């Protein structure tokens, strides 16, 4: 891994680890494999529809965490506020979806 040295005021050198391109390639391949698994489940045709929907939802959830963690760098320090705002947005959107479904199916 590539390392960069930083000097503090007291003269102590510390190393700062950087992500190399190999990690980005690995995450890209993981994203492509997850997409291929989801595509294969739908393209197979003879797969149970309930299983296919559950598999698609699980693959989508994994994709969301991979995308936000690595491509949006939310796994790094100092990103707590964007995470909190995203979770708040998901909570509000989920509440609106549940309310809309409840309203549509109200007898």
TrEMBL record:
<dbReference type="GO" id="GO:0009319">
    <property type="term" value="C:cytochrome o ubiquinol oxidase complex"/>
</dbReference>
<keyword id="KW-1003">Cell membrane</keyword>
<comment type="similarity">
    <text>Belongs to the cytochrome c oxidase bacterial subunit 4 family.</text>
</comment>
<dbReference type="GO" id="GO:0019646">
    <property type="term" value="P:aerobic electron transport chain"/>
</dbReference>
<feature type="transmembrane region" description="Helical">
    <location>
        <begin position="25"/>
        <end position="44"/>
    </location>
</feature>
<dbReference type="GO" id="GO:0005886">
    <property type="term" value="C:plasma membrane"/>
</dbReference>
<keyword id="KW-1133">Transmembrane helix</keyword>
<keyword id="KW-0472">Membrane</keyword>
<dbReference type="InterPro" id="IPR005171">
    <property type="entry name" value="Cyt_c_oxidase_su4_prok"/>
</dbReference>
<dbReference type="InterPro" id="IPR050968">
    <property type="entry name" value="Cytochrome_c_oxidase_bac_sub4"/>
</dbReference>
<dbReference type="GO" id="GO:0009486">
    <property type="term" value="F:cytochrome bo3 ubiquinol oxidase activity"/>
</dbReference>
<dbReference type="GO" id="GO:0015990">
    <property type="term" value="P:electron transport coupled proton transport"/>
</dbReference>
<dbReference type="GO" id="GO:0015078">
    <property type="term" value="F:proton transmembrane transporter activity"/>
</dbReference>
<protein>
    <submittedName>
        <fullName>Cytochrome C oxidase subunit IV</fullName>
    </submittedName>
</protein>
<keyword id="KW-0812">Transmembrane</keyword>
<feature type="transmembrane region" description="Helical">
    <location>
        <begin position="83"/>
        <end position="105"/>
    </location>
</feature>
<dbReference type="Pfam" id="PF03626">
    <property type="entry name" value="COX4_pro"/>
</dbReference>
<feature type="transmembrane region" description="Helical">
    <location>
        <begin position="50"/>
        <end position="71"/>
    </location>
</feature>
